[in-house]
Amino acid sequence: MSKTLQDIRFALRVFLKNPTFSVAAVLSIAIGVGVTVVVFSVVNALLLKPLPYLDAERLVILWNSSPGLDIAQDWFSTAQYFDIKNGHHGLEQVALAIGGNENLTGDGDPERVGTIHVSGNLLAMLGVQPGLGRLFLPSEDAPGHAPTAVLSHGMWTRRYNSDRRVLGKSITLDGKSYEVVGVLPRDFALPREVLPTLGGAEQADVLVPLVLDAGAAVNRDREDYNIIGKLRRGVSLTQARAEMDAITARLRHDHPDHYPPNGDLTFAIVPLLEQVVGDARRPLMVLLGAACFVLLIACANLANLLLSRAVARQQEIAVRTALGAGRGRVVRQLITESTLLAVTGGAIGTAFAALAVAVFRSMRSVNVPRVQNISVDWRVLLFSLLLSLLSGLLFGIVPAIRSSRVHLNSTLKSMGRNASDAGSLWGRGGNLRKLLLVSEVTLSVILLVGAGLLTRSFAALLDVYPGFNADRVLTFGLSMTGVRYADRHQVVETYRQLWNRLDRIPGVTTSGGITSLPLSEMYAWGPITVEGQVLPLGENFINADERVVAGDYFTAMQIPLIRGRFFTENDNAMTPKVVIVDDSMAAQFWPGQDPVGKRIRLDAVSANGPLVTVIGVVGRVKQYTLDSGSRIALYLPHLQYPTRDLNVVLRTTGNPSGLAGPVTLAVHDLDPGLPVYSIRSMQQRRADSLARRRFAMGLLAFFAVVSLTLAALGTFAVIAYLVNQALPEIGIRIALGATRLDILSMIVRRGMLLTSCGVIAGVVCALILSRFIQSLLFGVLQYDADTYVAVSLLLISVSLLATGIPAVRAAKTNPVTCLRNE
């Protein structure tokens, strides 16, 4: 122990005597460890930390899908819930939930809050204990029981100031009264990543019991419910999925009208952690690999610095050897120094990572699941410590062993002169440094190619026409609930008055509304058939997106009218039912014909579904994401299909965000009890739909810039070292008649040879590894030649600069001074 402390004290003295070297080495490791720890923190939160629920590893979420009808993920009907609950023996428990947003009125300002109606066993299945009061009793989800509610901890503290007297208090949700019986604990949440309810909020503020009516066991029409289950101990996912396949096969046989053969009804079972992580796993693995590349480049720089430093210390090591120090003792001292450098750099990098994680958590636009769970915990600290120790040991041991190989007699005789064994600019003594340099360039090319491909992909997404004009459009949500709006005519009249009030606001040119905003995870579809067309055998209907529009929605969003007309005031409850279809639907069903005047049957599951007449065709809209297609879509007039919930859109003449206040006043003048929520511009919604791609691209681009900087510094350090060691050769060449241009071109040529080897190796590796990011690309191939050429030219240009600086200095060498020193 005493010898170890002695080695550490000696290492500290060495570092203090060489501050430039020490700072460069520590910062190099700090950068590498820092970026790796940041990404590992995200990986730890998403993939390594268990979900904060009881027996989380056995929890699963179920999805209803019909691939033949282009439905990858759908919710469930109550009848399907009972099919699973009563027929699946591999599930120990099954819970039902339906979420949404409801108007909270009463004490304080009206507020739109996220609510989830849950079956009585859900919270117990998740192992939740009340933070205050109690949770739901088993009987409270039965018909006839007095309505009760449990508040989230955040709701309790935010709206009710953590007042314990909230227990027993009555709150009003959508005009219905509930008694508050409890508050959830601080560390419990049911975010959208865990329970992706249909049209639900990002976070549930209030939970209430889900009361099912007597016909729930046979109701197959409304597929809006989530199902969460818990596997029995000893039951594997494979077994559970096989049993579920048997259930869906039986349902397809027993209910062909609801589940036609071509739909291929399937109930998927997904582990809850997998559901939470979702499609973030692949980008996360790519970023972790990129961070490791940055760390390798940083470690290569450290190794190069240690090798260069070792050459300058050969005489010191020779003296210590002559005084009796064994080779093992010298190696141990040098490894102690490299490990101390790495641990110091790791500590600084971890501090940087903690700050970056705090900033990252505060960013709401990154769209990363479980973002609030990301932290620098004991797993991250242990990872950082191990990473630092391994970096110091693995990349310090080779320089230490090479430095301990001292030719005692020749080194002592040459004291005061250049003692290097690399007397030539291309001598063998620098081979390891050259290999490390080539490796750095190779890794930099890989990162730069990845960043370049993602950047081009993101640029291609920005150029995608979404089917509407998002500029200068303000959006907000509005829901007319309670007894006042029980009558559909009152709903229609209130919205009619609203459009008039909004259109009179200075700066507003057009107003309208729709049930499902584009690019906002709002979905609604239904079964249809087309009059006069016979479906193929086994097909009973086709699924189409259905959206109800009000006011001048199409004009406000600048969705083009291709044929026919828009809805007018005459398309009301007293006139025949009409519909507008998008151009993709028109092309599919009426190719080469005029769709206007054609008829569609809605609710095609029922033979008595209403027939509606097509009066217009509009352009296709990107409903889900910019990089995915959409279903065929149809639009229904609000005057004929009145709904209380609409997303209002306003086209403005200036900055839409500046109208949030006047818009809220206009709504409250109409009805002070109506909350105005989710006020955002359409540009913000479009940007949020790209948030995860933007984050992955930005982080990878940052890693690429860091790697490029480290590679440039590494190139400069290696070439500068080789030039310094070859000064005698350079002096002789100049003395024999070599010009400055000859010296400059010789060094640059040899330096660029190293860079070229790295670029070629990097391009080959990037071609192989780019398949891992193929799923993240849009509008660009993984073998995009322009990206590879641009990256290669960038590396060559930067390396030319890094090589040229020491080359220019070498060309100015005074041969007399150089040879005299030698």
What would you call the structural class? alpha+beta
State the total count of DSSP E strands.
Answer: 22
Strand order of the largest sheet: 3-4-9-6-8-7
C-alpha geometry: elongated
Content of β-strand: 15-25%
Termini separation comes to 43 Å
User: What percentage of residues falls in helices of 4 or more residues?
Assistant: 40-55%
- Poorly predicted parts: 415-424
Query: Total number of helical segments?
Result: 23
Largest sheet: 6 strands, mixed, barrel
Mean pLDDT: 84
Explain what the structure shows.
By secondary structure, this protein is of the alpha+beta class. The chain has 23 helices and 22 strands. The strands form 2 sheets. A 6-stranded mixed barrel has the order 3-4-9-6-8-7. A hairpin with a 5-residue loop joins β3 and β4. α13 runs antiparallel to α19 (691-725) and α21 (740-769) packs antiparallel against α22 (785-811). The radius of gyration is 34 Å and the shape is elongated. The model is unreliable at 415-424 (pLDDT under 50).
